[in-house]
Design goal:
Layout: E1 12-14, E2 30-43, E3 46-58, E4 73-81, E5 89-91, E6 101-104, E7 109-111, E8 127-139, E9 145-151, E10 169-175, H1 177-181, E11 188-189, E12 197-198, E13 203-206, E14 209-210, E15 216-221, E16 273-274, E17 280-283, E18 289-301, E19 304-318, E20 328-329, E21 341-346, E22 351-353, E23 355-356, E24 367-373, E25 376-380, E26 386-388, E27 393-401, E28 409-417, E29 425-428, E30 437-441, E31 450-456, E32 461-464, E33 470-473, E34 479-489, E35 494-503, E36 512-515, E37 518-520, E38 523-529, E39 539-543, E40 549-550, E41 556-559, E42 563-565, E43 568-572, E44 578-582, E45 587-590, E46 597-600, E47 604-605, E48 610-615, E49 623-628, E50 633-634, E51 640-642, E52 647-656, E53 662-672, E54 676-678, E55 682-683, E56 697-699, E57 705-711, E58 717-721, E59 742-751, E60 757-766
Parallel strand pairs: 12-19, 21-28, 37-45, 47-53, 55-60
Antiparallel strand pairs: 1-8, 2-3, 2-19, 3-8, 4-5, 4-6, 4-9, 7-8, 9-10, 11-14, 13-17, 15-18, 16-17, 18-19, 20-23, 22-26, 24-25, 24-27, 27-28, 29-30, 30-33, 31-32, 31-34, 34-35, 36-38, 38-41, 39-40, 39-43, 42-45, 43-44, 46-48, 48-51, 49-50, 49-52, 52-53, 54-56, 57-58, 57-59, 59-60
Length: about 775
Amino acid sequence: MYLKQSLKNFILFVGCIYFFTPSVSYASHIVGGDMTYRFIERQGDNNRYIVRLNIYYDCYPPTNAPLFVSDSTITLAIYQRMTASPELWRLVGNNGSLRMLSVSRTPMTKVVNPTYECLVPPTSVCVSQGTFEFEVILKRISAPYVISYQRCCRNSTINNLINGDATGSNFYVEITPEAQELNNSSPTFRTYPPTLVCINEPLVNDHSVIDPDGDRIVYRFCQALTSPGLSGRPECFPSPTSSNYNCPPPFKYATYNTNYPFDKPMAGDPPIVLDTLTGMITGKPNSYGGYVISVCAEEYRGNVLIGRVFRDFQFNVVFCPKKAEVRLLDPDSTQALGDKKIFLSKCDSTTVTLLNNSRFLQHINSFYWEFNIAGQTRRFNDWHPKITFPDTGYYKGILWLNKGERCYDSAYIEVLVGSGLKANFDMKLDSCNASPIVLTHKTKNSYLPIKYWYWELGDTTMYIYDGTPSVSYQYRTTGLKQMKLTVVNKYGCKDDTVRTFYYQPMTAQLQLAATPTEGCIPTKVNFTNLTTPFDSTYKVKWDFGNGQSSLLQNPTHIYSQTGNFPVKLTVTNIAGCQKETLLRGGISIHTNPKADFDFTPKTVNTAKSGVQFEDKSSADATGWLWQFGNKGGSSSQNPNINFRDTGNINIRLVVSNTYGCTDTITKSLFVEPFSSFFLPNAFSPNNDGVNDVFLGQGYYDSFKSFSLQIFNRWGEIVFQTHTPTEGWNGQKNNAGYQLPEGVYLSVLIYKNYTGKEFVIKNYVHLTR
């Protein structure tokens, strides 16, 4: 629907203003924009304005393709500052009922790329302009109005903003109270912004405005604005609603790269500057990329600032080749050579073919080559001339395109033919010492000075730039070595020579090691030759100090005699140089002590288990370690040990002396089990609980057999058992009738753990 005239105290939109949310067709990236207004007439307390928004879009690729589709309808908002709370803004409307306004775009137009007389700008940069124009009636108030359009997005090619492709765009115009009262129209920008700028070319861009009221204008670089409505989010297209009101002023600024503050937004030499009086942007850009530049035009009537407009635009700094541009190819690799000063080398010939690859032939009206040869200037008119120079040397020339015309180009050419280099060097080596090898180059300077010498020595490489004739190097390993010297002159010509030799110097100091260096008879010693550099071609001889020797590099030797033995290592290289050294301290071999012991008593049983051990070892023993089978040990010299278990026990004694030498002896000790059995001589089986059973006592666990028999006076067996724990209760066979009082004969027969039999006969009295 449309606003009715009855809402005269508020905004009136006519023509292309609608009160619904438009469908959004996402465009290519926004590269700039500006918003202006024009006063039409007064209507009572209201002013009628025409507002114009220009938006510039990146329409790449423009060649043989239609413009990218931009937003055909956009959404804007009008805010007014709250008089009671100046820091707050509200949407203009009837009790908040007006939330947004939709405006349709006029047909898109393509912004024409700038032309340059002698340059060929690229066709890959394309900018189109969309214009949105609408009428609005605003009541004159003592507070400013802001008309705002907010949108994503810029693009990733921006150099002077941080996260340029995540930075939104925001274009607005402010109608101040002064402008409302003065029936003011804002200035409008005079010309289109430049779609591209050629690098390293003078920039002269008219960013001035036309003011219909003739007010004084001051120009400044200002900060570009951003919008939080990114990645298709609708918050700040804007589309304010009763539940979503987060887009009013004050607006946020874009974040600039520290190298490009907003008042110095683009690199240049001379710098890019804005004339505050004329609005001209001048300088010479010297860095490729996209740069967002925001120009504010401040409008003064007298000395009172009554308004400002700004244009936010992305300057694209690109390479623009000349219409007639020199290009040459390397005749050997056909690779492109430099632009203005070109060097060619032909180190093995005096004939050079120059390959002309200059561009934009339709703009090349004339060309020729000039060379200074033997003091005379010679001209060559072939497109690809083949020139034979009279001698090896260095020659200078120039290629002219359109010489004498306004759009010309040229390139200086330096040609080197032949090198005159012959690499050579001397080598000095003392095979009987470990001194470094000294290498001295003997290359003669040709007609061009030598730039550097390059030594490849196998283990390392060295570049010599300062002209030092000699270098020294110490190889870390021996063996067959190859040395290569490459000599390179100022213009890249080179020559090399190779020399091979066997490197085996005599080291400055022999190094050897022995493990161990001290021991007891016998001691096995491992000897190691640590001499470096060293290889199998060296001859070695070890003298072990005891009349024996070895020719092995790392021998092993067993010392079986006591004493201190000096050890000597002798090394001989292939040149016959010989060096020897002694092992510091030599090898010390010590005698071993003699272990022996005795013990008492010789017969031991479990009843009498204490044993006293007596050390009988040699007098040089200073340490004792006893091991009593699996029954523990002792470090006492003469320990006393109690043995609780029976059986054969190996007693081991290890003795040591002050050098750590040891000896061991082992003897056996047998611990007998103790056995005995005692029978009483009387008992009274009367069931009074006292001495009712005839039962023996003793140590019988080690018995191999046991037999107890009871006989009466007539020789009849009345009780017998084979179990020591079974007693006689006074009855016949412990189950018959009670036997009469009297004297009975007991016969005990048992065998101990060795099988020895014992027979014990006693009389026993039976009483009741």
